[in-house]
Amino acid sequence: MQSDSERQDLRRCVKDAVSNQDADAAVRYARRLISTSNKSADVMFCASAFAGIADCIKNQLGAKGLRTYVVRSVTVEPIVPFLAAEGVLSNYVLDLQLGGYGSYADELLNAQSALVDFKPDLVLVLLDLEEIAGRMPDLCADGIGAKVEEEIEECVSRTAQLLRSFRSRNSARLLFQGLVVPDRTSLGDVGNANLAHSLPNAVLQLNQRLAAICRTVSDCVFFDADHLAARYGRARWRDARMFLASRLPVSAEFFSAYSRGLVGSFSAMFRAPRKVLCTDLDNTLWGGVLGEDGADGIAAGSAFPGICYLDYQRYLKQLSSRGVLLAIVSKNNEADVRDAFKTRSADFALRLEDFVACKIGWNEKSESIRELAQELSLGLDSFVFVDDSPVECEGILQQLPEVAVVQAPIDEPWKLVEILSEQPFFDAVQFTEDDVNRLNEYKAQAQRAELAGSAGSRDEFLASLEIVCTFQSALQAPLSRAVQLLAKTNQFNLTTRRRSTAEVERFAAEGQAVVVRVRDRFGDAGVVGLALAQNRGDACIIDSFLLSCRVIGRGIETALLAYVGEQAQRTGARRLVGEFITTKKNTPCANFYPDHGFVKCAAMGTDDSASVFYENDLTASVPVSPKWITLEGNDSNEQSRNTVFTA
Amino acid sequence: MSNQEIPSSLRNLLADVLELSPDQVTPDLNADGVATWDSFRHLQLILSLEEEYGVQFDPQRIPELTSVSLLQAELEKKGAAL
Q1: Whether residue A116 is found in the same domain as residue A216
Q2: What is the average pLDDT across A197-204?
Q3: Considering the domain boundaries, does residue A437 fall inside one?
Q4: Which of A26, A141, B69, B72 has the most C-beta neighbours closer than 10 Å?
Q5: Which domain covers residue A3, as residue numbers?
Q6: Residue A203: closest CA among A174, A218, A225, A233
Q7: Which residue in B17, B43, B56 is closest to A41 by CB distance?
Q8: What residues in B contact A252, CB-CB < 8 Å?
Q9: Residue of A37, A39, A83, A258 to mutate when probing chain B, most B C-beta within 10 A
Q10: Do A57 and A70 reside in the same domain of the chain?
Q11: Domain for residue A431, yes or no?
């Protein structure tokens, strides 16, 4: 714990930053204050400081404002400042509204509830055992519990109905909190462990079933409160005195941890996970310094301390198998590194082929990461950097603030995996096949770059790729992938509207929700583009139009626009209207509509004043797909007038 | 009554939780006189005091401790090092 004078200093810094309306400094000092002080008064101080500059935090730091409604059956008021503060530390400004104690069902089910009026972006459902399965403690009392299974079924179906019925009318993201497994019951520890229907066993089973229900509800995440409680100790998680006197569900000492858990959990629905992990080699991927100790001298393999590094390698391998790209960024001689990977392969979990790129040399690491970002067409905010050197870590922090930096603890190598797994960088609610195939796709991209160097004209090069575009309804392709694209595409995204699953479904029903799947001779890139459009009067208005940055510049955007145009024509539209909303990141597509012959037109009445509209007269011309692209799709047979073009 | 009678750690904590400036915290300050001091803020205050001074209040006494001087007296009774 820090000294009181240090604490007062930090508080003064926060206060000064607030009066200067300097959001960055305020959050920076507050983060330091909260991470070093154990006092809840400091958290409340920060929460009220943040509340005073909420707009600055949004404008200067790009924090996402979230109207958050809390459906609850317990007392959460004292936790609210903690939740608000943790939200800001993760770059969210939460506008929190609490529901009534007893009205959770009404709020979720009634079409005219206070919740609906609040128009939330996010709904947190925080119920207790009593509401979800109130009869369970009595039914489990003898551990035989003939009725327990029946009760579980009933609880699950009641909850499912609650969530599904809410979802059918409201598109706010949902967080559903699981139950905390009771620590002690009248059966005692032995009975709880050995009887199939002890209360702890029944609640564990119920939690799994509830999580499964959440998976079937779109934009819904299950928050495993029990996992968190177990981490800190279930016996201490709840203060019986405060629960019985005031229905406070969590002991005050865990307000911060609980809030952090909640924020981390809903965050996965709003933020794309990072995609690339750049690792250093010496004293990070192995122990020791290759240039000094030689390939035989570095620590790796199954004996301590080598096993610490082997563990880290295994962890990276696991990340890789779910689609996180690995890269080496190291100051070393490349030949030595290749030799080490060859001669020590029995002691390594990773092969050089597991890395999408190697930046081995004597360049500045920030420069190497910048190059990597360019080569992979990824933003710097997709990168995580792991290095044991405080100097290198500080360098990246200063020069590439978007990159997340993890410092490997050089004297305690066994801690690295834990430090890394505590971070929410790679958290995702779901994985799609496309995530898993990403490594191959990026490798293919490198091969394409090579071919680009050897082919003659651009058209010839593109033709030699043998690109095939398949158009599908977003409902047919994995819908989760469409929503994921909406959530994480920044560069080639004309309106950057983060539409939810429910909204995509609405477009599919009332207009167009088209995805494009792309493959070429090097590989299958999967679903990489999406368009949402809806007819209004004689115009077809394109609400969202986006393309994954890894396939930009190959004419796929034009093919998608042509497809949307033809569909619009088919449904009787006479004009195709495109909308563009400028952001910090989407300049690559600023001229997309003008480049395709669209002309500026009057606003089409959306609430975005930043929107610019363009139109194309469909009775005069329709955008045409590039000749080097082969088209497939729902009704695409008649469209495949473009011939297959082979080199 | 002067502010000097309230130990500074207590005064600062009350100020943080009730969102007041420390000079506004006087011994006769009570829940009726402060807009932010509602029953939930009161619970928040109790939890923060318990944490700061390592004491536990009796749930039956908690609703009665609605002024600064009452809180201070109860803390002293519990042997808190103010």
Answers
A1: yes
A2: 96
A3: no
A4: A26
A5: 1-62
A6: A225
A7: B17
A8: 47-48, 50-51
A9: A39
A10: no
A11: no
* Distance in angstroms (rounded) separating the CA atoms of residues A557 and A116: 37
Where a domain ends, among A267, A295, A314?
A: A267
Nearest to A77 among B17, B40, B62 (CB): B40
Q: Name every chain A residue with its beta carbon within 8 A of the beta carbon of B48.
A: 39-41, 44, 252
Average pLDDT over residues A76-84: 96
Do A329 and A353 share a domain, yes or no? yes
Judge: A78–B19 Cβ closer than 8 Å, yes or no.
Answer: no
The predicted-structure confidence for A26-72, as pLDDT tens digits, reads as follows 999 999 999 888 789 999 999 999 999 999 999 999 899 999 999 99
Strands A355-361 and A220-223: unpaired
A330 and A228 fall within a common domain: no
CB contact under 8 A, B48 and A244: no
- Three-state SS annotation for A537-550: CCEEEEEEEEECHH
Q: Number of Cβ pairs closer than 8 Å across A and B?
A: 46
Domains contained in chain A, number: 4
| ipTM reported for the complex, 2 dp | 0.91
The confidence score (pLDDT) of residue A455 equals 54
Rounded distance, CA A252 to CA A24, Å?
29
Whether residue B4 has pLDDT greater than 60:
no
CA distance A297 to A282: 12
Is residue A225 scored above 90 in pLDDT? yes
Q: How many CB atoms lie within 10 A of CB A313?
A: 21
H helical segments located in A498-555 = 501-510
Spatial separation of the C-alpha atoms in residues B14 and B6, rounded to whole Å:
10
Q: How far is A47 from chain B (nearest CA, A)?
A: 10
Residues from chain B that touch A81, judged by Cβ atoms under 8 A, are 44
Amino acid (1-letter code) at residue A588: P
Average pLDDT over residues B46-64: 95
Residue A444 lies in a domain: no
Rounded Cα distance between A531 and A250, Å, is 44
Q: Hey, are the CB atoms on B51 and A44 less than 8 Å from each other?
A: no
Query: From the CB of residue B76, how many other CB atoms can be counted at a distance below 10 Å?
Result: 11
How far A35 CA lies from chain B's nearest CA (Å)? 17
Give the pLDDT band (50/70/90) at residue A647.
very low
CATH class of domain segment(s) B3-77: mainly alpha
Residue A482: inside a domain: yes
Q: Do A252 and B51 touch (CB under 8 A)?
A: yes
Q: Which of B16, B47, B62 sits opposite A78 (nearest CB)?
A: B47
Work out the minimum CA distance from A69 to partner chain B, whole angstroms.
18
Do residue A90 and residue A195 come from a single domain? yes
Q: Which residues of B touch A256 (CB under 8 A)?
A: none
**pTM, whole model, 2 decimals?**
0.74
Residue A638's pLDDT is what?
Answer: 33
Location of structure tokens 């903690």:
A82
Which two tokens mark A638?
């008649």
Q: Are the C-beta atoms of A13 and A20 separated by less than 8 Å?
A: no
Backbone dihedral angles phi then psi of residue A273, each to the nearest 5 degrees: -70, 155
Identify whether residues A31 and A143 lie together within a single domain: no
Q: Please, are residues A161 and A167 in contact by the beta-carbon 8 Å criterion?
A: no
| Contact (CB<8Å) A241/B56 | yes
* A587-608 mean pLDDT: 84
Angle formed by the axes of helices B8-18 and B39-53, to 10°? 150
Report pLDDT digits (tens) over A503-543.
999 999 999 999 999 888 777 788 899 999 999 989 999 99
- A9, A84: one domain: no
Contact partners, residue A494, CB within 8 Å, separation at least 6: A542, A544, A545, A546, A578, A579, A580, A581, A586, A589, A592, A593
Of the two residues A167 and A480, the one the predictor is more confident about is: A167
- Over residues A580-601, the mean pLDDT reads 89
Together in a domain, A473 and A377: no
